[in-house]
Protein: Adenosylmethionine decarboxylase
Organism: Piscinibacter terrae
Amino acid sequence: MDGLHLTADLRGCDPGLAAMTDAAALRAMCVGAVEAAGLGAVGELFHVFPPPGGVTGVVLLAESHLAVHTWPELGAVTLDVYVCNYGGNNSARAQALLEALVVAFGAREAHRQSLRRGALAAPVVRAA
């Protein structure tokens, strides 16, 4: 179950950008970026909060997930991309997806993190 989990905390995003407050705009941005990265969307859910009206969105991927949370009142966005590499190495696709969204939000600052998941140093043996 080798996987790659990427996150980005964005600051300095334009609060007037439609994707910051409009679920349909955020959905279009996310689904377009997923398709462009060569990943497979299998489900989605987007929710708008009451004013100041940030949006939370999740795209379920055949490879795992994309989650996005916007805070227009702070000009901030958090991104979360996780892919498993079970059937093939999807790491480059995950990186492309994250970078496309960082660019789309026009962030002045982006703090990125990367975490390898599921790679065990040695198998766990349980006594019977």
